[in-house]
Amino acid sequence: MVGSPWYGPWAVSVLLMSIRIGMVFAMTPILSAMPVPLMVRVLFVLGFSAALVEAIPSAAYRGTVDLTALTTAALIEFSVGVVLGLGVLFAFATFSVAGRILDIQIGFGIGQLFDPATRQNLPLLTGTMSYLAAVCLFSLDVHHTLLRALAYSFEHFPMGMPWAMTDSLPVVLRHVAGVFTLAFALVAPVVACLLLTEFGLVMLARNLPQMNMFALGMPVKVIVGLGALAAWLTGAGEHVSRIFTAVFRSWEALFR
């Protein structure tokens, strides 16, 4: 198959391209957030890779077709896919960190729910914000931007091109630092409302020491926290867009 003059290069290009694309999707919960069978995911990656090879002829593999060269190219595509997938993974992690902040502030951190998608026990708002990230990905048309960015990566970093992972370390570290900043910015108004609620409960406890503030404070913080979160998310589209925009800025910095 490798020695065929037409089918060999095309098949090698599809295979190498599917490694990069497959690692991007494997590193992120885009497909795992939905109950998609494994075979469907594999066929989707192979079909998308074949379409990109036909749509971007310049992205086809131009290197030597032998075992050593193909192994090296596959390892390069694997590492590039991991680094690109980390960018999308950090975007979803931003929502999870924001949910964990709210869980701690509201008091949901003491309870755990089983998430069938990730097979983990997560607090209520942490799991909810993770699903919200998947909803925002498709509702804000970010998935089309993601596919275009993948095509952009093959245009500016062709398959088989030498890749130094150490050069991507500063970009990855900056993105990791931005996760916490963007996560807090996403829920900062809700945290402020909860802080004011805490002050109010403290003042109430000082004036009415006979009241059971634990029994009163928990329902009040739940109502205020969920109400403020629902009101804030209706107009938080710009902040959500900034989270996903940071992904593509980091990708652009990698290939600059």
From TrEMBL:
Q: Where in the cell is it found?
A: Cell membrane
Tell me the superkingdom of the source. Answer: Bacteria
Note whether Transmembrane occurs among the keywords: yes
A Pfam family cross-referenced in the UniProt record is Bac_export_1
Q: Which UniProt keywords apply?
A: Cell membrane, Cell projection, Cilium, Flagellum, Membrane, Transmembrane, Transmembrane helix
Give TM segment ranges.
6-26, 38-60, 80-102, 176-201, 213-233
Kindly give the membrane topology term recorded for this protein.
Multi-pass membrane protein
Q: What coarse category fits the chief subcellular location reported for this protein?
A: membrane
- What family is this? Belongs to the FliR/MopE/SpaR family.
Q: What is the name attached to this protein's record? A: Flagellar biosynthetic protein FliR
Tell me the gene name: fliR_3
